[in-house]
TrEMBL record:
Its main location: cytoplasm. Residues 16-198 form the Guanylate kinase-like domain. NCBIfam families: guanyl_kin. It is found in: Cytoplasm, Cytosol; Photoreceptor inner segment. Pfam families: Guanylate_kin (PF00625). Belongs to the guanylate kinase family. This is Guanylate kinase. Its EC number is 2.7.4.8. One of its GO terms (molecular function) is ATP binding. InterPro entries: GK/Ca_channel_bsu, Guanylate_kin-like_dom, Guanylate_kinase, Guanylate_kinase_CS, P-loop_NTPase. It catalyses: GMP + ATP = GDP + ADP. GO terms for cellular component: cytosol; photoreceptor inner segment. PROSITE patterns: GUANYLATE_KINASE_1, GUANYLATE_KINASE_2.
Length: 211
């Protein structure tokens, strides 16, 4: 009884662990993330990455990404402003220290949406997140979803599919991810994601209620 109390107290004091969502482009990371942030807006906060890619219709600067030039991004990296950065499909992407600190300063669980190079690099930091891999049911389904999303040129789509095949293999490497979710039916996948994060959600709610 006491042991359980103390272990919960200790883990609450350690603060919530960040969450990394990774997986192929088109696997459904943003869709799942948006559902999570909507249902638990007082629990999770999104780490807004920097990117050199152009904004898509409906995306907002500072909300979906910080849209910057290659020069600005490179300068930031050289100054040590980034926890990690990577080149994906012809563009640069990176998590700034400020992006994570902004979320953690609000006592929220920081959620990062990053590619597999990001996962490898974050493993070398002291962030200690929960690693969640979101995978499509098959490459054929992934291709259909990417085409139906209508955000990519044929060239960009082919690059994403090529990277997806590597990513799908990477996700099978033992010890790389704590949780692996196949996003076939969206509601089922969302249910799995929530279950995987339940302990951290409860922790944040308890701490925020008592403060
Ligand atoms: N390493 C790293 N990858 C990122 C970052 N931000 C986004 N990504 C990844 O970059 C890839 C492309 O993202 P995006 O252009 O938004 O396309 P989408 O995944 O098809 O919606 C995805 O795999 C993202 O997870 C970041 O800060 N660091
Ligand atoms: N379970 C699902 N069933 C059908 N379509 C889905 C499902 N999950 C996501 N989608 C759709 O697939 C496309 C890719 O999802 P998205 O969240 O943009 O992926 P990612 O962020 O991983 O690139 C979007 O158009 C989205 O609406």
């Amino acid at each position: 009884m006491y042991m359980r109390y103390f272990s919960r107290l200790l883990s609450a004091m350690a603060g919530p662990r960040p969450v990394v969502l990774s997986g192929p482009s088109g696997a459904g990371k943003s869709t799942l993330l948006k559902k999570l942030l909507k249902e638990y807006d007082s629990v999770f906060g999104f780490s807004v990455s920097h990117t050199t890619r152009n904004p898509r219709p409906g995306e907002e600067n500072g909300k979906d990404y910080h849209y910057v030039t290659r020069e600005v991004m490179q300068t930031g990296i050289e100054k040590g402003d980034f926890i990690e950065s990577a080149e994906f499909s012809g563009n640069m992407y990176g998590t700034s220290k400020a992006a994570v600190q902004d979320v953690q300063a609000k006592n929220l669980i920081c959620v990062l949406d990053i590619d597999m190079q990001g996962v490898r690099n974050i493993k070398g930091t002291d962030l200690r997140p929960i690693y969640v891999s979101i995978q499509p049911p098959s490459i054929a389904v992934l291709e259909k979803r990417l085409r139906d999303r209508k955000t990519e040129s044929e060239e960009s789509l082919q690059k994403r599919l090529k990277a997806a095949k590597v990513d799908m293999e990477f996700s099978k490497e033992p010890g790389m991810f704590d949780v692996l979710i196949i996003n076939d039916n969206l509601e089922d996948a969302y249910g799995e994601l929530k279950r995987a994060l339940l302990e951290e959600i409860t922790k944040v709610k308890e701490v925020n209620m008592s403060s």
